[in-house]
Amino acid sequence: MHIGARQRSPITAVVVGLAGLAMLAGYLQKARCAGAPFDGVGRSLIFDRIKDTQVCYSDIQFLWLGRDVNLHVFPYITGGINADGVLTGGTVEYPVLSGVLMWLGGIGSHTDADFLLHSALILAPFGLLTAWMLGRLAGWWALLWSATPPLVLYAFHNWELPVVATSVAAIFVMTLERIPLRTRGVLAAVLLAVGFCLKLYPGAFVLPLIAYVLTRNGTAERRYDVRGAVLVAVAAITTVVAVNLPFALISYSGWRASFTFQENRQADLTTNSIWYWGLRPLFGPVADDVPLPAYDQTVSLLSPLLVCAAFAIALRLGWLRFHRDGVYPWIAVSAAMLCGFLLLHKVHSPQYTLWLIPFFVLLRVPWGLVAAYLVADLSMGIGVFKYFGALAAQTDASTFEVLVKFGVWGRAGLLVVLFFVFLRATLRHPPVRGRTGPGSGRRPMLKSPEPAR
């Protein structure tokens, strides 16, 4: 029995409403670390005491200090990075649009509690928008976004919600079949480029999008739409340049410092990566106060090379599927590329799970894999902070270390499996089948790919 068009709005309303409740719960959880009394620079005195043991730590509250957010300095313009790798003068370690969001959250804030609240108010609409789009695209499957632990744990852990919204919006735009394909491709490329200026990873999705536009207008003779593909590429590049160029021209050192910071970042205990837990023990004692230049150099070389290799494999397998099915599976390829990045990048922060969940919603993935990933993520999302808290208190951390290792290796193994599962996956069928053209009274829903005719 198919869900009627009139019933889709209530489904979407439920999905959005539950997302709002999840984010409210997430804010209340993080806000337990914030509040009076404060020190002279507006830091909650309770923050350092309970942030790990009570799992209420957030990067948002932490970065109230150290990036001049508390001084209301506009980011990148006067900043840089010193010889010790410390960011100065308002520069932050994220791409420019995330830095601007941080600055906006700091306006009118006098304490880290204010900053957490104001940032949550800025970020929450992006979480609701993502829920709405996923509800329209996949119906009840969108509850994977709205009604699972990651949104509670990570909605206000960092500035992830806007970048997730841009990725989902790009997919949503590509379903609006009343708009010509080239136009949709350009709009989606702009959205993904904006995402790149928030947290980089959506920029990778432009490559499969280009392949989709290149092949989608092909005829039986396999003629390609080269002009459309070029327009998509140009739109993405132009958007990235337009957003970044003013910052680079005003202060190149401040703009460049955010990239330098990430390039120099070591794959240490805080990165939750396979590199730290798998490779580092081969180079010497596993202690963060022991410098291991050979290890750092190895990771800095291997990590980007292997990420690029994973991207190339995903794109190639997507091309083979195009020749078999007649449609380039750009969403599936994007999901696989994200798996490669999450697995092989030297940093795998817990909140990155929010990047992956929309692909669980949109693509046919076995329930067992989804549930297993959520369990592994929960083990990491809670265990890692309990582990840090035990280490800081110099108490027995062995149980929490087991949770962290389960999270690291559980996610890693599942990402390898998901890489290939995504590449074979089809899009979930819409709740409604039928005509979506003018006069139908129906919005286009996400449809499984069909061979081009």
From TrEMBL:
- Looking at the UniProt entry, the stretches that span the membrane are 12-28, 115-134, 154-174, 186-214, 226-250, 301-321, 327-345, 352-376, 408-427
Q: Which UniProt keywords apply?
A: Membrane, Transmembrane, Transmembrane helix
Q: Which domain of life is it from?
A: Bacteria
Disordered as annotated region, ranges: 433-453
Q: Cite the InterPro entries for this sequence.
A: UCP010361
Q: Which named protein is this?
A: DUF2029 domain-containing protein
Q: What organism is listed for this UniProt entry?
A: Rhodococcus koreensis
